[in-house]
Amino acid sequence: SGDSLLLLAKVHYVQGHYRDAQGMCARAGVDDFSRHEKPVYQLRMLAEAFVIKGLSLDHQSMSGASRVRLSEREEECLSCYLMACDAGLLYLQELDKVCVCFTSCQGPVYSEHVFLCRHVSNCFLGVSRCLRRVMRAVESRGSQSFRKKVARRLAEVLLGSVCEEAYWGPLSPPPPGWLKREGATHPKNAIYPSGEAVISRTPEHQEARESSMQDASSVYDLLSIAMARRGQYAMLSECLERAMKFSYNEFHLWYQLGLSLMASGKNEGAVSVLKECVAMKPQDPIPPLLAAKVCINQLHWLEDAVSLSAGVVALGEGAGEFLPRAHLAIGLCRSLQASDATLKADRDEFNRRALQSLRKAHALDPGDPQISFYLSLQLALVRQVSEAMEPLQSALNIRGDDPHSLHLLTLLLSAQKHYQHALDTLKLAINQHPDNFNLLFTKVKLEEVLFGPAAALQTCAEMLQLWQSRYDLTRLSEEDDTSSIPPDPGPLSKKPSGLHLTLPDFQETETGSQSAPSLAVSRLEQAMSEVSAISSAHRHGPAYIWTTLEHIWLQAAGELFMADGRMKEAQFCVQEAGTLFPASHSVLLLKGRVAELRGNDTEAKSLYDEALAINPRGHQILLHLGKLLVRTGRVGLGEKMLRDAIQVENTAHEAWSGLGEALESRGSAQAPDCFLTALELESSCPIRPFTIIPREL
């Protein structure tokens, strides 16, 4: 009978008689397979028979066969495996109607699927078509676990072999040129574990638990690849969080979750998860350094970062190449703590520790440009300007186009009063990084010193136009304001935004005299309409974009107009910035300075007080308020404000000079010491503070 012939085909295959096995399959009539009115057991035997026939064809030697014949043989094998899959799926569907227990019914169709994928592992088009064909079969309860394996295998093929731009739908034919022939991955050793996640920690379930974890890890790895390509890190982190219920002490999944939380901007959660990774693998230096990076760059949790980095330092040589990076992280934390310190003794101690850690890092890895750069920056912060040049030159020799290194070189040259050389260096940096606003702010200050406020205003106008062209307001309204990752500006939209950012000019072009009041009013009305357009748009998009625009109006344009004696234009800039951030202490400070220059001391003091209430440690606020109080006769209170300004920033020569004037006005013998300190600090003062350069890992 046919059943006997199929059993004989099995025997011949086991004995290695592949031709005889094929003959028995042919005599049994497996090629005449019909889906109708077949007993359930016979469907299973047919599925096994197709597998036997396919394997026999695959193992049968064909010495001297032509390429055409080999191709025909491969197509015949593929056809057998496809028929095996069809028969196996039909067997499960029929079994679903009569059987309740399915735990032992998946063996045949699972085997057909394995042989199918192994046979055509190098034929991605065949794999994708076959797996999609299996997925389109009517689902039964017995095939649910099997379908999960098929879906994972299909995901492997699509992710590893199909171009992003050439994906086609399951029911449509593949487009030409869909295959990535260069660098395509070949997931040949796919693992096909069974069942759902095993949570039990008992010893008898250890093997099943490991198999389940291996299955889950491979699926989540595929998910990570797919979502990371599209930047869907928040969704990826949510998916990985669901896996934590069966991932106790499983480092890989916890580490993946930590990375996804970092990428999605969930910084507190990322640090917590990475700390768990540190507990699982205390000898691995990477998770604690990643957690320290988040603590420094995003959260400003400096003591946590020091603790994490100290754990890497404690590994000693076991940390390998990461040991210098750990010392660097500690040095950056100490440097930032020195900037935050309120007492001079604490500040000096933190600066000493920062230099110590950074010098250790530099000694361990003198060829690391980032370590050399931050060592130079720390030396500059403690005003050792000449000593800062050597490590900075080392950093520039390795990475000569780094904008922060070139910026620091510019500031060091300006601290040595080589302003023209500093401007030449800065122009080189701007040529390589034309969209860097931090460099452009420094350029404005240098041009003001070298050529006067009027020349620097041209750069301000260019900065406003750059801001408008870089951040398309029509596109910003569609972005998420809570995103922690600055988005790529992207291509500029051709859609006009209706907003024109230009510097004000309330002077006649020919005579330079003040324009008529009516003209000024009309221009202010036009400006306010543009400002209202900004106000309606500034609620959208990341906050740093609008902070940059506020700085352009205040720190660049507004201060330059005041230095040039053009109060109306300065007032206009303040109004622009105030529309963006009405409660900004920077806006209130500049308003107070404008009022003070106009002789309105009472209004200026009121504005300074409001700014100080918002930012009690504002160095510039304390400085201007203290000078105002001294000038208006309230020397005692003014001296207190100036001392507070020095406590916040003890290298500010303006505060020391102001304190000297206050002490001199009441006949104190300490006034000359203050003036000498101011002169000494002014001799090494850069055009902008060294702290404008970010200290980040």
From TrEMBL:
One of its GO terms (biological process) is phosphatidylinositol phosphate biosynthetic process. Keywords: TPR repeat. TPR repeats lie at residues 251-284. This is Tetratricopeptide repeat domain 7A. Residues 3-193, 195-240 form the Tetratricopeptide repeat protein 7 N-terminal domain. PROSITE patterns: TPR. The gene is LOC107586483. Gene3D superfamilies: Tetratricopeptide repeat domain. It comes from the Eukaryota. One of its GO terms (cellular component) is plasma membrane. The keyword Transmembrane does not apply. Residues 478-501 are annotated as: Disordered.
